[in-house]
Amino acid sequence: MKQETPFDTVLIANRGEIALRILRACRQLSLKAVCVYSEADRGAPYLELADEAVCIGPAAASASYLNTDALLMAAEATGAGAIHPGYGFLSENAAFADAIAASGRVFIGPSADCIRTMGDKIAAKRAMISSGVPCVPGPDDALIGSADDIAAVAGDIGFPVIIKAAGGGGGRGMRIVRSASELVGAVELTRKEAARFFGDPTIYMEKFLDRPRHVEIQVICDKHGNAVWLGDRDCSLQRRHQKVIEEAPAPGIDRALIAQIGELCAGACRNIGYSGAGTFEFLYEDGAFYFIEMNTRVQVEHPVTEMVTGTDIVAEQIRVALGHELSIRQEDVVCEGHSLECRINAEDPFNFQPRPGRVTRLALPGGPGIRVDTHLVQGYEVPASYDSMIAKVISHGRTRSEAIERMRGALRQLKIEGPASNGPLHASLLEDPGFIVGGVDIHHLERLLKERG
Ligand code: ADP
Q1: Closest-lying ligand 1 atom to the alpha carbon of residue 171
Q2: For ligand 1, is residue 292 a contact (CB within 6 Å)?
Q3: 24 a catalytic residue
Q4: pLDDT value, residue 4
Q5: Could you tell me the pLDDT band of residue 1, with boundaries at 50, 70 and 90?
Q6: 121, 174, 235: residue to mutate for ligand 1 pocket, most atoms within 8 A of CB
Q7: 145 CA distance to ligand 1 centroid (A)?
Q8: Which residues contact 452 (CB under 8 A, 6 or more apart)?
Q9: Which CATH number fits the domain that encloses residue 162?
Q10: Distance of CA 137 from the midpoint of ligand 1 (Å)
């Protein structure tokens, strides 16, 4: 039998804080790390830490970080036997995973088939239903047929409903429908948007939940059929579907129910032959969980899980890609204390406009229970070309209130001058009575921002 391709060098097909995070994990495992960069990222400080750094093209992501050919050429030139996609960019692109495999390299993530299934929300829903994972009420079929057929589907579910693109992502291609009179127009419009944005007009319908929380389960699986779930996270504080503060565990939810859902997620992974890290995203309302989607990659908010479980999720992803068995068993997973993550963006804290620029002063927080994941150093020029997230401040405490108190202290120590930062927004959210009690719904932050005008 052909041996699994072994590798001693990982190419990191990403940039910024997650590139540095992956680089650190490679070092932990005594692997060589190759970084790639676009012309906009030339001279970025984290590149100096890599064994090699290769320019893969101009600033536009389509010509660099999304350029499969350039990434494979960089892997070829540097002898990288594996590619870690990080999050965003090509991380959930099945064709990229296929191209890497075809080049004889290892994609650090699940199989292309698993990525494809989870990238199609109808296929994902079917896979979940067959594993007993609870889904949002509604058919696991594409929405087709006459206006009467569609009205009948909505009638069965009960208004309000949401029409969603099967191939959707990034919070786009969704439309809420509150009454029968809006239905046909909404279906047509969403179908057109789905075709335009995602190249696939397939849409489906499900119940719209009015005030859910966003609660997710982290999983990690190896290629030997082992799957464990590493607890839960609450990511309900969102603006325009973008998470702002995340925490682990989700406050105020029955732990026995979480354990039941976690076991179902791990079971679903075994059923579909999933390997690597992944996240099952749920809406949680009135004491019940409803699956919405699975992310087949490491997530921005993975550190809060690392803080409470003591597991290095990125190192574990790489170990799995090397063909090792998981280093943890389910019975070893213990969640201790509480962790929060504030996403620091180079943006105006009040009008949210991106405000990149050169970092003229930088002071990062520290002390017990504080971790900062960032690629910033003084003098670094935050480029305008990419996502505005420049740092993640993570706190851990024995209790949720200790984690909050430590985060408050960390934000007071954090000084970033040059680019704008949303630090002041985070500081005010940590004083919000709703957040302090815990368990707010996904509309809470937008409501707060509206009240403030
Ligand atoms: P995407 O892949 O675009 O992120 P998701 O399916 O994860 O799409 O949904 C994104 C967001 O849309 C959710 O976090 C939630 O805020 C909202 N949403 C999706 N489905 C529903 C639903 N059935 N009821 C209420 N809100 C929903």
Answers
A1: 3
A2: yes
A3: no
A4: 53
A5: very low
A6: 174
A7: 24
A8: none
A9: 3.30.1490.20
A10: 13
Ligand 1 atom nearest 281 alpha carbon:
7
Is the per-residue pLDDT at 55 higher than 90?
yes
| 445 and 302 within one domain | yes
The answer to whether position 123 is within a domain reads: no
Check whether residue 304 and residue 427 sit in a common domain: yes
Q: Is the shortest distance between the CB of 281 and ligand 1 below 6 Å? A: yes
Stated pTM of the model: 0.97
User: String of b and e for 294-326 (b: at least 16 CB within 10 Å)?
Assistant: bbbbbbbbbbbbbbbbebbbbbbbbbbbbbeeb
| pLDDT at 311 exceeding the cut of 90 | yes
% residues pLDDT > 70 (the chain) = 99
Please state the atom number of ligand 1 nearest to the C-alpha of residue 172: 3
What's the average model confidence in pLDDT over 226-248? Answer: 97
pLDDT in tens, 273-285: 999 999 999 999 9
CATH number at residue 85: 3.40.50.20
CATH number for the domain that contains residue 250: 3.30.470.20
Does 205 sit in the ligand 1 pocket, CB within 6 Å?
no
Contact 186, 175 (CB under 8 A): yes
Strand-by-strand arrangement of the 203-207 sheet? 174-177, 161-165, 203-207
Phi, psi of 215 (to 5 degrees): -130, 135
Please report which confidence band the pLDDT of residue 2 belongs to, taking 50, 70 and 90 as the band edges: very low
Q: Distance from the CA of 213 to the center of ligand 1, in angstroms?
A: 11
Same-domain check for residues 193 and 296: no
170 lines ligand 1 (CB under 6 A): yes
| Boundaries of domain holding 76 | 9-108
Task: State if residue 442 touches ligand 1 by the CB under 6 angstroms criterion.
Answer: yes
Q: What is the pLDDT of residue 139?
A: 96
Q: Is 276 exposed, middle or buried (0-12, 13-18, 19+ CB in 10 A)?
A: buried
Domain final residue, candidates 183, 207, 231: 207
- Find tokens 């699994």 and name the residue: 4
Q: Would you say how long the chain is, in residues?
A: 453
- The tally of domains found in the chain comes to 3
Residues 63, 152: one domain? no
- The response to whether residue 209 sits with its C-beta less than 6 Å from ligand 1 reads yes
pLDDT (mean) for 197-225:
97
| Confidence category of residue 123, pLDDT binned at 50, 70, 90 | very high
Q: Which of 169, 172, 166 is nearest to 125 (CA)?
A: 166
Give the pLDDT of residue 5: 55
Distance in Å, CA 169 to ligand 1 centroid: 9
Backbone φ, ψ for residue 144 (5° rounding):
-140, 175
Catalytic hit among 105, 116, 191, 297 = 297
- How far, in Å, is the centroid of ligand 1 from the Cα of 126? 17
Predicted confidence (pLDDT) at residue 6 exceeds the cutoff of 90? no
- pLDDT reported for residue 170: 82
- The verdict on residue 312 lying in a domain is yes
